[in-house]
Design brief:
The chain is an alpha/beta fold. It folds into two domains: about 1-70, no CATH class; about 135-520, TIM Barrel (Alpha-Beta Barrel), CATH 3.20.20. Helices cover about 40% and strands about 15% of the residues. The chain has helices at about 1-20, 25-45, 50-55, 60-70, 95-100, 170-180, 195, 225-230, 260-265, 285-300, 315-330, 350-355, 360-370, 390-400, 410-415, 435-440, 445-470, 495, 515-520, and strands spanning about 75-80, 85-90, 120, 140, 150-155, 155-160, 185, 200-205, 235-240, 255, 275, 305-310, 335-340, 380-385, 405, 480-485, 490-495. The strands form five sheets. It has an eight-stranded parallel β-sheet. The chain is globular, with a radius of gyration of 25 Å. The termini are far apart.
Length: about 525
C-alpha cells in the first residue's frame, strides 16, 4: 500500500498539473489540496507509532475514526466457557493503554454483569498490604536438583510464537521487550532465528515435533545441533512441545505463503510449501522414554532447565508421565499447561473449538496429580492460554501455577488489531506476515518498548491485587481466594469447583475416585 500510495500520488500530481495548465487554472487549487493530503500520507509512512497507518497511509486513519464513534463498551475480549456463556469481558483497550503507558483506569465502576453465571472475583482484605512495600518484580527460580544452570525468571513471560508465524520485526520487538523488561521470550517451535538472538533477551527454546534448529536432514532429532544451540547464553530454558491448546494432537502448521527462503533454511524444509509438523515426537514413544529424553537434553545442554508443554487430553497419559518420573527418579524442571482456548495463526476450526481441556481444568488437574504423587516440589508450573490481565495471573496462580505466559496480549502490545488474517500472510500491522512491505510498518524500537511496558504494568497489576488481598507473596494464594457465580443465586469458590488432593495420596494408594480409572490405565511403557 505504501508503494501504491506513492505511485498514485505521483500520477495524481501529474494529471492535475496537466489539467491546470491545459484546461482550467482552477485545477491548481485541487492540486494544492491534493498536495496537502500527499504530505499527510508521507507523514503517515515515516511516523513510527502506528503500524496500520504506516502501512496504509491516510486510509489507515479510518480505524481510529470508527473507534472514536463507537461506544467504548463494545471494545471487549469475550472469554467463554464450553457453553459459550460469558465469563469475563476484558476491555482490550487496557492492553493498548498499558503498552503505551496511558491511563488505564475507568469511570462508573464495573461494566460487567456481576449477577451473570460465570462471573468471577477475588477476595480482598480489610487490612491490605501497602502496594509500595511489596516486591514489584516477583521472580520464579526454575531448576530442580539435577539442574546445573537454574534460571531466575519473571512471573510473566512471552508465550510460544514462532518466526514464520510472526514476522522478523515482531520477533525482534518481542525479544527486545524481553531484554528491556528482564523477562523471557519463548521461541515457539519454529526454531532459533537470528532475530531471536539479535537483542539479547532471555529465551525459552521450544523443541517441537519437527525439531526445527535441532534436526537432521531426514527430520529426526540431532543431538549435535541441539547441544550447539542450547549452549548459547541467551537460551535459558528448553521446552519440549507435546501439544498446544489451539490444535492439540495436530502438529504445527506454517502456510506456504509464509514459508520464505530464509525460514525454509532455518527449518531445513523446502521453501514455498506448507510445513506440517508431525503430530507426535519421533525421539521417544513411551512415557518412560520421554523422561529419559528430558534427562538427555539436560545433559546435552550443560544442565539447563528442561520442561515440556502440553494441553491436557487423555488424563491417563499425564499420570503415566508422572509414574515414569517416580520410577526413574528424574523430573522436569517445569511443565507448561496450555488451555484449549489458546490461540494460533493457523488451525482447523474443530481443533480450535472442540479439542483440548480448557486452561483452568487442565491446570487444576496437573497440579493435583503432582501433589498427589508428592513431586510438585521438583517442578514449576507455567500457565498459558488467554492470559491477559493481572486477574488472569491471580486466578492461574491460585490454581497452582508458579508463573504465566501470554501470547495474544503481547501481540496486541506489538500493534495487532485482530484482523484475523494471520494465516493469509496479509496482516495489516506487520505482526503475522512475511510480506516485507507490511512488515516494514512495525518499527522494532517503538514496539519493543510497548511490549516491555505491557509486561511491567500487568505484573504491577498482579502485585496490587495481591496487596489488596492482604498478601505479601503469590505463594499465599489458594483456590478459596477465587469466587465464581455458578447460578443466579449460587456462588462457590475454586476450592469447591476444583477440589485439591492430599499430598502423597496417590503414592499411598488413596487415589481420588474421579482419577481412579485414569490412574489404572496409566502405564510408563505405553501411551495406551
Amino acid at each position: 500500500m505504501r508503494k501504491l500510495f506513492l505511485q498514485f500520488s505521483i500520477f495524481l500530481v501529474i494529471v492535475l498539473a496537466a489539467l491546470a495548465w491545459f484546461v482550467w487554472s482552477g485545477f491548481w487549487w485541487l492540486l494544492l489540496v491534493a498536495g496537502l493530503f500527499i504530505l499527510l500520507g508521507i507523514y503517515d509512512m515515516v511516523q513510527t507509532k502506528h503500524s496500520l497507518i504506516r502501512n496504509f497511509p491516510i486510509f489507515g486513519r479510518a480505524r481510529w475514526i470508527m473507534e472514536a464513534l463507537r461506544p467504548k463498551i463494545y471494545q471487549y475480549f469475550v472469554e467463554s466457557d464450553t457453553d459459550g456463556k460469558p465469563i469475563n469481558r476484558i476491555d482490550r483497550s487496557t492492553i493498548y493503554q498499558r503498552a503505551k503507558l496511558q491511563t488505564d483506569t475507568m469511570p462508573f465502576g464495573t461494566q460487567l454483569n456481576v449477577y451473570a453465571e460465570g462471573y468471577e472475583w477475588m477476595t480482598h482484605s480489610i487490612s491490605p498490604v501497602d502496594f509500595h512495600k511489596l516486591n514489584h518484580d516477583p521472580r520464579v527460580v526454575f531448576g530442580n536438583r539435577d539442574c546445573k544452570q537454574p534460571y531466575n525468571g519473571s512471573i510473566l513471560n512471552v508465550s510460544a510464537m514462532s518466526y514464520g508465524s510472526l514476522s522478523r520485526n515482531a520477533i525482534e520487538a518481542l525479544n527486545g521487550g524481553a531484554k528491556l523488561g528482564n523477562f523471557a521470550h519463548n521461541t515457539g517451535e519454529g526454531g532459533l532465528s537470528p532475530y531471536h538472538l539479535k537483542h539479547g533477551g532471555d529465551l525459552i527454546w521450544q523443541i517441537g515435533t519437527g525439531y526445527f534448529s535441532a534436526r537432521n536432514l531426514d527430520g529426526s532429532f540431532s543431538e549435535q545441533a541441539f547441544a550447539e544451540k542450547s549452549a548459547l547464553p541467551q537460551v535459558k530454558m528448553i521446552e519440549i512441545k507435546l501439544s498446544q491448546g489451539a490444535k492439540p494432537g495436530h502438529g504445527g502448521i506454517l502456510p506456504a505463503a509464509k514459508n520464505t527462503e530464509e525460514i525454509a533454511a532455518i527449518r531445513l524444509v523446502e521453501k514455498g510449501t506448507t510445513v506440517y509438523s508431525p503430530p507426535f515426537h519421533s525421539a521417544f514413544s513411551t512415557p518412560k522414554e520421554m523422561i529419559l529424553f528430558i534427562a538427555k537434553l539436560r545433559e546435552l545442554s550443560g544442565g539447563k532447565p528442561i520442561g515440556f508443554k502440553l494441553c491436557i487430553g487423555h488424563k491417563s497419559e499425564f499420570i503415566a508421565i508422572c509414574k515414569a518420573m517416580i520410577e526413574l527418579d528424574t523430573y522436569p524442571d517445569f511443565i507448561t499447561v496450555d488451555g484449549g482456548e489458546g490461540g494460533t495463526g493457523a488451525a482447523p476450526q474443530e481443533f480450535s473449538n472442540y479439542v483440548g481441556a480448557p486452561l483452568l481444568d487442565g491446570l487444576a488437574f496437573v497440579h493435583n496429580v503432582l501433589v498427589g504423587f508428592d513431586i510438585k516440589q521438583h517442578i514449576k508450573l507455567i500457565a498459558s492460554g488467554k492470559m491477559i490481565s493481572g486477574f488472569h495471573l491471580v486466578r492461574a496462580i491460585a490454581l497452582g501455577a508458579d508463573a504465566c505466559s501470554s501470547a495474544r496480549a503481547m501481540m496486541m502490545a506489538l500493534g495487532c488489531i485482530q484482523a484475523l488474517v494471520c494465516n493469509t500472510n496479509e496482516c495489516p500491522t506487520g505482526v503475522a506476515t512475511q510480506d516485507p512491505q507490511l512488515t516494514a510498518g512495525l518499527v522494532v524500537n517503538d514496539k519493543k518498548q510497548r511490549v516491555c511496558n505491557y509486561h511491567n504494568e500487568t505484573v504491577k497489576s498482579l502485585v496490587e491485587l495481591m496487596g489488596a488481598a492482604g498478601m505479601k507473596s503469590t505463594e499465599e494464594l489458594n483456590r478459596h481466594h477465587i469466587y465464581r457465580r455458578v447460578f443466579m443465586n449460587q456462588v462457590t469458590t475454586f476450592e469447591d469447583i476444583f477440589p485439591p488432593v492430599a499430598t502423597g495420596c496417590m503414592l499411598r494408594g488413596e487415589v481420588p475416585e474421579k482419577y481412579r480409572m485414569d490412574f489404572e490405565r496409566a502405564h510408563i511403557d505405553s501411551w495406551k
